[in-house]
Queue: 4 jobs
Job 1
Amino acid sequence: MNIADEMAVAHPGHVFLECKDLRKSFTVKRKEIRVLRGINLSVNRGEIVVIAGKTGAGKSTFLGVLGGLERQTEGSVIFEGPCMEDLSHEELALLRRQKIGVIFQNFNLLPSWTAYENVEAALLHIGMSKTARREKVKTLLNNLGLGERLDNLPSELSIGQQQRVAIARALANEPALILADEPTGELDGETAQEIIDHLITPVREKGVTLIVATHGIFPLDIATRVFYMKDGTLVPQQ
Ligand SMILES: Nc1ncnc2c1ncn2[C@@H]1O[C@H](COP(=O)(O)OP(=O)(O)OP(=O)(O)O)[C@@H](O)[C@H]1O
Ligand SMILES: [Mg+2]
């Protein structure tokens, strides 16, 4: 049993994801920037939550904390039972590797690794054989229309193609939670719709939870709930 499953067994009947009075500040040149100022949010399995808000509002910071990539300053994040802040650095990294898929705003693809290697990276150290990994990566990239681009470096791919590699990487470990930061930011309408379809398929088919951050145009009708981030808090939208 992996660590995340052990935690789930140890905490039956838990909420899926819950933030309580979450706060995050950065200190730059001795000046404190209070970005998240008391976020309370409870998310169920299978929800699609959209966080909208102006540039600089703190959306990426929030997703970074939810994804265990950054530690909050105060408050707690409960994910599938345990409080993330109680986990050691290693436990948090493992939880992320096994249960969370992140699509970064700038993709964060490794520039010297091919599309194939970037996606395969998400499957290392989770006990999957090389053959199974190869099968999985090829299927994912094929499904995303990149079957012919496995050996290309990110610099040899268009922005939309890089974005799809980032999505394949985020979906590779079959996460319970997908955090998508501006997943359709730079794309034309048709490509954006394709990307959205790829993101909502695991929600519909497997009850995955999707949280999307956007400062632009995003089809809000797919969301179960929409929030506007303002002054470091989440304001529910009708
Ligand atoms: N590592 C950091 N150090 C200092 N300040 C930071 C850091 N990361 C983010 N910030 C600050 O936090 C604020 C929120 O940034 P964040 O990237 O979360 O905004 P955002 O809502 O994602 O914006 P955008 O819509 O442009 O992506 C900004 O004022 C930014 O300068
Ligand atoms: Mg951002």
Note: Confidence is low (pLDDT under 50) at residues 1-13.
Job 2
Amino acid sequence: MSTPPDDPGRPDGAVAPATRSPARSGPDVSFGLGFDFDRAFDRAGTGSSKWARSADGVVPMGLADMDLPGPPAVAGALEQRARHRAYGYTVCDPAGRALVARWYRERHGVVVDPAWVLLLPFGPRTAVRLLLEAVRPLGPVLFPTPEWAGFAQLCLAAGLPYEEVPLARDATGYRLPVAAFGGRRAGAVLLSSPHNPSGRVWHEAEIRALAEAAAGAGAVLVSDEVHGDLTHPGRRHPVAVAVAGPHRERTVTLNSVGKTFNASGIPSCFALVPDAALRERLVAVMAGYGLWEGGLVEQVVQQAALRHGGPWLDALLAHLAGARDRLTGLLGEAVRSAPEASYLLWVDAAALGLPPAGARAALLERCGLDASDGADFGPGGHGSLRLNYALPEPVLVTVLERLARLPRRAG
Ligand SMILES: Cc1ncc(COP(=O)(O)O)c(C=O)c1O
């Protein structure tokens, strides 16, 4: 078997055959821990932000991380690296870029040039902010609403003018209002793809049309795809830099092993930036904040996850799809957009008999479930709640029982 041109190799010198999941074959990296999503997973004492804010007996279903154990390979790699007490400054290992390219080829069937990859030592929120600084938008920043409660906040913090464009709808849920982005000037278009809060996977044609509209408006399209690897079985995630066609150089894709592999407490992400000049500007912006590619801990996490995390991710996606089916079966028409990715359910509060203005408090009081308030997701979020269902089986059962107490009517 020959080594693919961008294959980063492995510490043990073995080469993975090209399967959909880079980690499906190869050494035993289970470290004896297994992928058990059916048993309770106690986060007590771990400093979990979600649980620290939660009263006894309440199930926190807000913040977008998972109450599920992460890949054993990541734990093993961290443990192994921590044992060597060299914790000084690090360089960026080019193997990381090649691993990203291999991940896209094998997982998404997409060709990514390793030269496009920037391995960033901070989370996706910071990445969007610094990308905007590097893009230097000459017009307003546009994005659909509702959105993940970040884009508006980041524009406000950066002092950039922005406009929120209401999403369109069809029979199954949200659609991108592409026409509203065309025929005007803009500095940047931001997209959450797949969509947080609804879990909608945008169609390839919609993304291509949006890239075209953005280019026509003189804008760079920044596609935040941190939920892209969490696209449910049977769906395909269109990667913006791969589907933008002639507008690829004006398109950026952002992704994060933190989201995919439930390691957001170790901030990292990566960007695919085909335009070399924009890449250089981003690196210069980062340098201005004392940030550089390839921090110690995030490289360990990223490489372990991308090398060995595929089987864990496949098991996770099967678990999430099962949870999705049970929840959508129970909540029916209250679900605003059929979830096709990630672990987020976007529901119409009124359809569950909850007062649209105080829905979060009412759900907490009636069911002991703490959701995210739709109003935090921009003007398109009023009257909605976002429920995070990345839960182990016993907690999921509790949530289903509690939600069954609510009245339901057609939305
Ligand atoms: C779509 C999307 N983008 C960005 C972020 C921000 O991630 P972080 O706060 O880890 O930087 C999140 C977090 O939930 C998200 O869902």
Note: Residues 1-33 have pLDDT under 50 and may be disordered.
Job 3
Amino acid sequence: MRHAARDYSHTPMNIYWEMTQACALACRHCRAEALPSAHPDQLSYEDGLAFLRQIPDFGDPMPHLILTGGDPLERQDLYPLIDEAHRLGIETSITPAATPALQKETLAKLKAHGVTGLGLSLDGSSASRHDSIRGVPGTFDRTLAAMRWAQELELPLQVNTLVSEETAPDIPAIYELLKPYTPARWSLFFLISVGRGKVLDPLSPDEGERMMHWAYETAKTAPFIVATTEAPSYRRVALDAMRAEGMTGEQIMRSNSTRGFGIRDGHGVVFVSQSGEICPAGFLPLAAGNIKRDRLVDIYRDSPLFQSLHDPTQFEGRCGYCEYHTLCGGSRARAYEATGDPLASDPFCQYEPKHHA
Ligand code: SF4
């Protein structure tokens, strides 16, 4: 709704580039199954430049680029690649791992090279809780330090928090901990068990629905935006609650809770893997092409996989005939993880649509 000016079947909001799988951490839920050193298939510096130079083909408005990994700080050519993105006019954020390489000077240098956003993961309200998820002692303290540095450097911050059986009871305490750091946005990532994530347990659909209601109520007074990742049915919960509160259409459209409506895996989001594979999302590892031989814009707009993800009437089961499917559409990654079919119904949502097929 807020992003109505952008046609997501034409242009993504966010391009995620997994710059490397190399990472010094060993997080229990790592999607990338990060390695101590780079994979031999990793895109070279020249490949990376060629990829970045394709992004302006999407035209105006240009997608936002998020540099992720593994740990993007592991790439020796990180700054020249950021410089090229900046030269091309691409707004760029980065999600570094909380390792000793992440210092205040690092953040200052990233900002000086044109990075406009920082993403950090915080999965516990105490060192013992967070570090047990992240696999390396000291990451909690480093994450809090990096959050403080981002505040001092006025580098806009997004904090991402895993929601699983293990972390759910701690979510309210994480919220309280975050308040003084004034992030721009807090995103609750509802676990999808891919990669090393299989060692943690997702919430049940009922527990997930309760967590979404808590997120909606919390968002009303939170000093930052509260959002969800891989839980688009939060939009149904938020919209229903706003209507029940008597909000007008105009008020609903202006609400922070409606940000991101309509975006889903492969529709508003595209993921380029460390080897150049073009996928609908990091948690939906189906390659529709490769950046080394295909044009990103062609794959995003015209490949059969992306075309089917752009069109919710092609979804199966409840997500196919649900009255919310344009603004929600379900998590395509979770549907794929559960059934092997990215067009299947999202098993995390128990909503029974009013209009049956
Ligand atoms: S049934 Fe599918 S489209 Fe409808 S609210 Fe649930 S996840 Fe979203």
Note: The pocket of iron/sulfur cluster is lined by residues 232-233, 236, 318-319, 322, 324-325, 328-330, 346, 349, 351, 353 (CB under 6 Å).
Job 4
Amino acid sequence: MIPTRVWAISDVHIDYQENFEQLVSFAGAGHRQDTLILAGDATDRLDRLEALFQALTAGFRQVLFVPGNHELWVRRSGEPDSLAKLEAIHELCRTTGVRTEPVLVGEYHKVWLVPLLSWYDDKDQPEHSLFLDKDYAEDRTDDLWGDFIHARWPGDLQQPLAQWFAQANEPHLRRAFEHPVISFSHFLPRQDLIFQKSVVESMRLARHFDPLPEFNFSRVAGSRRIEEQLRRLGSRLHIYGHQHRNRLRTIDGVTYLSHCMGYPKERQRGHVPAEASQPLCVWRDDTGFTL
Ligand SMILES: [Fe+2]
Ligand SMILES: [Fe+2]
């Protein structure tokens, strides 16, 4: 008998029909005992998200989801703001059977799967931001980043967005996790994960080879609040997405995995490896962690 397995993927961007079909076809290929972690950026359209959830819950025993920034865009929805959209997404998860709270899986090697809601801290939150200054270029990120156009937040929100999202995780963090933990977020938990090389070397190279000097991804990449929460959980493996630059790295006892499906053109150009068109197995009940 095939053991229960846990698979992970993010940034499936199903408005590309090719991505939708690849994921649905994977779901239908022998995963009735398995669990899928979907770490955000599927689509901003609720009707498309519902179709995806229905197909995935038909193929997998369990599906766990955290929204990414694209889900919280309100440009094509009737929601008044992005927090109302978040509530609509959670309601959709409830009605389709998609899980958004910690789940224990396995019978032999047990593991907790813990979703962490998140947002990024911009440079006005230096204590938590992943921001790195590009002193060689004008910063036009405000004009270039889709969230600043398509997401909308309640005017009376008194705290930084990333803090609001981190606080929403607190009820889940207070419980005891008596087995190993796999946590997952859409956004990056650490500045050093932005780069393939060291931060210093990467910034030195960027002065000469930056393809988009006026866009500063580090302003919208993630938050150290995610790192703080996953460390409190004692997470062994943290899965994240968002950047569409896949990584597998172990730092101070935690393995960080980014396995983004990305856009078809990113896979064609090699920015995202071709094998990312399918979820990756990260854990199985007979042998435990696979990475
Ligand atoms: Fe994405
Ligand atoms: Fe994203």
Note: The first strand starts at residue 5 and ends at 9.
